[in-house]
Amino acid sequence: MANQRSISRLLSLMLRHRPDEFGLEIDQYGFVPLDQVAQAIQDRYEEVREEDVLELLNSPGQYRFELGEKGVRALYGHTFFVEMDGEPMDPPERFYMGTTTAAARRFKTEGIGSGDRFYVHLSLSREVAESRSREPDSPCVAEILAQQAAQGGVEFYERGEVVLTRQVPGEFVGEIHGLAEQAKSEGSDRSKVSKRSEGSDRSKISKRSESSDRKVTPPAGEMTYGRKPRKATR
Predict the structure, then answer these.
(1) Which of 122, 136, 172, 203 satisfies CB 3.0 to 4.6 Å to 95 for a cystine?
(2) Per-residue pLDDT tens for 48-72?
(3) Closest Cα partner for 95 from 138, 142, 139?
C-alpha cells in the first residue's frame, strides 16, 4: 500500500522533473490537471484514489505542492523552465541560503546561480537555511541583501516556505556564516598533518643516526674486513 510519503515522492518526480515521461500536459506555470495527476499515480500504485491525492495536497504543513483551479503544481524544485505568475514579493531586508563552503567561496565574485534547478532557492530564516545546508557539522549560510537586490532589479517570488529568483549578483551577497569556521578547521587539519609528518621525519632521522652510531664487534675468530693486520717483526 502506497503511503503519503511515497505519493509525495512520485508527485515530485512528475511535477518537478519528468512530466513528459508520465504523459502530463503541463502549462507554462507548472499546473497539471488533477485527473491526469491522479491517473498517473494510479498507473504506478493501483490502490491510490484521487481522494488520497487530495488528502495529501490539503494536509496541514504541506508546502511542496499547490492545488488550484488549473490543477496541481509543484511550488519549487523544477529542473525545467516554469514561468512565475503573480507579482514579485516585497522582500525583507535579508534572505538566506544554505550551501557548501566550496560554493560559497565563489559567491561574492561570481554571484549565485541556480545549479541543477532552474531557480535559485532561498530561505526566509537563517535557521531554515542551516537545516538545508549540505555541511551538517558546520552549516554554511549565505545572507542575501534582498532589499538592495530588489532595488537593483532582482525579482523574488514566495512559493510556500521557499523564495525563488533567477540569480543573485555577487554585489548583493552579504555575510557568509560558517566560512571562517571551516577555514580554521582546514588550517587545524593541515597543521596536524604537518606535525605528524615532521614527527615521522625526525623519527626516521633519529633511527638512521642510532644505526650509524652503533658499532658491531664481530665474534672472536670470525673474519673481519678492511685492512689486513701487519705481520709481526722479529
Answers:
(1) 122
(2) 999 999 999 999 989 999 999 999 9
(3) 142
**Euclidean distance between CA atoms 42 and 46, whole angstroms:** 5
* Residue 133 pLDDT class (50, 70, 90 cuts): confident
**Could you tell me if 36 and 53 are in contact, meaning their C-beta atoms sit under 8 angstroms apart?**
no
- Quick one: DSSP state of residue 231? P
Q: Which residues contact 67 (CB under 8 A, 6 or more apart)?
A: 34, 54, 57, 58
The CA distance from 129 to 99, in Å, is 8
Size (the chain), residues: 234
207 pLDDT band (50/70/90 cuts)?
low
Do domains 4-74 and 94-181 share one topology? The answer is: no
DSSP H helical ranges for 25-125: 34-44, 50-57, 101-104, 107-110
Name the fold adopted by 94-181: ADP-ribosylation fold (3.20.170)
